[in-house]
Write a structure and sequence with these properties.
The chain is of the alpha/beta class. It is built from 23 helices and 29 strands. The protein has a 7-stranded mixed β-sheet, with helices on both faces. Strands 19, 24, 25, 26, 27, 28 and 29 form a 7-stranded antiparallel β-sheet that branches. It is flat, with a radius of gyration of 31 Å.
Length: 708
């Protein structure tokens, strides 16, 4: 990034801060602008509102100016609801006047492809340093100073702080604003096409806003991986959790997403890899997305993932145990002392356990449940959750007395012990508004839907673990950019590929290059058995052409194999003459074979691929992907996620593999790639023979492809 573009970005982000805290707003357009004025009034905005229309005298009771140049001051924010060509003209006038930012409601830009590309480029040029939201968006709901740039009615927010949501779908943002889950919000931003401002800009500004507790992203794709990663690193540093819900993850969904917003969708594994690196919590549904943002916004983080569950139902407890286990939560039994204390409080037919069945007879018995819950939470637990469903009632009815007593019981226990407390309902709809509000008032997390409840608690524990890891190891690295390269490709032969990788620490066989006439004497000077390979940059895939011979016992066998290789290659590739060979000692004593490769994604940049090697690579398709640069810790974690990792870990009494040596070998491939990222198009090191612990590894084949 040049100094000039960096300054422009800085100016735009400063203007975005003004746009999120506007002192004056100008509304430009017709009926839609009038609706936005009404929404702003209803929310209680205290700043100055102005209107522009070339023909109307007033909009929603606000006198109109004919054009931007007639305004008595330079506004911080503008809501523009006019057709695309007029939007560009108005943005240009606002930029020249020094306005901070604007929401561009109109469609007709990049989302319609080539037909709108000219309008899109014109809008970017007209904006200058302005913070432009959209186009093709609904705008901003502002719960902080109520200066909303939004033309659809939305429920008022009452929380002092809350989650900020950025979504590529305006309609989904509307739906999220109307949820019945008591999620506190600070901002909801419909990002639209992101012609000027992208997710990276919003995240970068929002992490510094003291009113923001968490950031939710509904996205189809990310336009700038490196800038986005840098902003998310700042979020990790400031301990602002980010929650993501992606659409376009199926083949059909990706096509719909691309046609909808012209963004890049798909590439699921690489998005998962990126989000894992950045500590972004992924969700699979809108309810999970909202519940997780709520939990992160209303409660401190737990110290760990040990959970105790309370209910009066064996069925609820069984489901709780299942879903908690699937979410990676731990359910340790109570200690002997706890069990004795709890049993003393239970009826004769009850028994202490985790989950704890406090029996139907104790339903709503606050005087009995409070000491029971407190005793459990005083133990080795980080989170306590009670599973109860409120009887069906109207939204205005008070909380049932027995339910209220149980909420107070766990609230008191959580406060006394300093542990995280939650109230979960089996049915999402079985926690009415007044009960949700009571749960919050008790300092507890209201969670709706038993399946999502434990997934959310697990993800909250995941985030706490991520912060602990960052505290130990530091912030994650920012991925390398995708370097532009020409279409040409040059294959390095195996000897040259191994030589270059060995310079970065990859262990390779002690091989020598020789002509046909030199092979016999060379073999006599080396210990056998031998591996012999045709050596040519024009023959990257040697095995298919008959260009490899293994387990050759002596010099005579080597010479015979070389002559056969020459014949087979000539038959497979007429006109290709093999006159150079690579002779190596055979690698012995392998516990497993692993592949380490590199591909270059045009959007994500260099990607390290680690997987089952040798003949298993195509059979099992067992691989993990890491963005570069990476660390030894990430490489080891990726190896442990492989389905074939048990082969490295002493499967069925086999020797354990030399895992540190394998990690170092793969790190060498990663470091070579990072140092040569501008020229690398592909790397394939397969297989790496992994020996028993302490015996090291050796890469017996390697191919580097450079871009030209």
């Amino acid at each position: 990034m040049s100094a000039e573009s960096s300054n422009v970005t800085s100016a735009r982000r400063a203007n975005l801060k003004k746009l999120l805290s506007p002192r004056q707003i100008v509304f430009i357009g017709g009926d839609r602008a009038g609706a936005a004025i009404g929404a702003c009034r209803l929310a209680g905005y205290a700043g100055e509102m102005l209107a522009i229309h070339p023909k109307k005298k007033e909009i929603a009771g606000i006198p109109c100016f004919a054009r931007v140049g007639d305004l008595p001051m330079v506004p911080d924010a503008a809501f523009i609801s006019v057709p695309a060509p007029a939007t560009v003209s108005i943005v240009r006038d606002l930029a020249q006047a020094g306005a901070a930012g604007a929401v561009c409601y109109a469609s007709g830009f990049a989302e319609i492809g080539a037909a709108g590309a000219e309008n899109n480029q014109a809008l970017i040029a007209a904006a200058g340093d302005m913070a432009i939201v959209g186009p093709n968006c609904f705008g901003i709901i502002n719960y902080v100073n109520h200066g909303s740039l939004w033309s659809v009615p939305y429920p008022a927010g009452t929380a002092a702080r809350g989650a900020a949501i950025i979504g590529q779908s305006g309609n989904l943002c509307i739906n999220l604003s109307m949820n019945q889950r008591e999620v506190p919000f600070s901002y909801i931003i419909s990002a639209g096409n992101q012609a000027v401002l992208g997710f990276e800009d919003y995240v970068d500004v929002l992490v510094d806003d003291p009113k923001v507790t968490a950031i939710g992203l509904f996205l189809e794709g990310i336009r700038d991986i490196v800038a986005f990663s840098a902003s998310c690193r700042r979020a990790l540093e400031r301990k602002i959790p980010i929650v993501a819900l992606r659409s376009g993850v199926s083949e059909m969904g990706a096509r719909v997403a691309a046609s909808h917003t012209s963004s890049l969708a798909g590439q699921n594994e690489l998005y998962d890899t990126l989000f894992q690196r950045l500590g972004i919590l992924t969700t699979q549904s809108v309810p999970q997305f909202l519940e997780l943002l709520k939990a992160l916004s209303v409660s401190p983080l737990p110290r760990g993932r040990r959970l105790t569950v309370f209910s009066s139902s064996g069925g609820d407890n069984g489901m709780s145990a299942d879903f908690a286990s699937l979410a990676g939560l731990e359910l340790p039994p109570p200690s002997e002392a706890q069990a004795a204390a709890v049993n003393a409080l239970l009826p004769d037919f009850g028994a202490a356990g985790n989950p704890l069945d406090f029996t139907a007879g104790y339903w709503g018995q606050e005087n009995l449940l409070t000491p029971m819950f407190t005793t459990m939470l005083e133990g080795d637990y980080d989170i306590g959750a009670i599973v109860i469903d409120h009887p069906r009632q109207s939204e205005e009815d008070p909380v049932d007395g027995l339910m209220a007593a149980m909420v107070r019981s766990i609230g008191t226990a959580a406060r006394k012990t300093g542990k995280i407390g939650a109230v979960a309902s089996v049915n999402p709809e079985s926690m009415p508004r007044k009960m949700r509000q009571m749960v919050l008032a008790e300092g507890l997390i209201p969670l709706q839907g038993i399946h999502d409840s434990f997934i959310v608690l697990g993800r909250v524990a995941d985030y706490a673990a991520t912060l602990a890891r960052v505290s130990r190891e530091g912030l994650p690295t920012t991925p390398l950019p995708a370097s532009p390269c020409g279409p040409g490709r040059r294959h390095l032969d195996e000897a040259e590929s191994k030589r270059r990788l060995a310079e970065f620490g990859l262990a390779v066989p002690a091989g020598r290059v020789a002509s046909l006439g030199e092979l016999a004497n060379l073999a006599a000077s080396m210990p056998g058995p031998y591996a012999l390979k045709a050596l040519s940059a024009d023959l990257p895939h040697k095995t298919e052409a008959g260009g490899v011979a293994l387990n050759l016992a002596d010099a005579a066998a080597v010479l015979a194999a070389a002559e056969r290789i020459q014949r087979d290659v000539a038959a497979h590739r007429p006109g290709l003459v093999v006159d150079r060979f690579l002779l190596e000692p055979m690698a012995q004593g392998g516990v497993a074979e692993i592949l380490a490769g590199v591909t270059v994604d045009p959007h994500f940049g260099p990607v390290l691929v680690i997987g089952a090697g040798g003949i298993l690579v195509e059979l099992l398709r067992d691989a993990q992907r890491l963005l570069l640069p990476t660390t030894a810790g990430e490489i080891e974690a990726a190896l442990r996620r492989l389905k074939t990792f048990p082969l490295l870990d002493g499967f069925r009494g086999r020797p354990k593999a030399d895992l540190p040596a394998l990690v170092s070998a793969i790190a060498a491939v990663a470091e070579f790639t990072a140092a040569n990222a501008n020229e690398i198009a592909e790397i394939d090191v397969n297989p790496i023979i992994v020996r028993a612990a302490g015996a090291g590894v050796v890469a017996v084949d390697a191919l580097i492809v450079t871009a030209e």
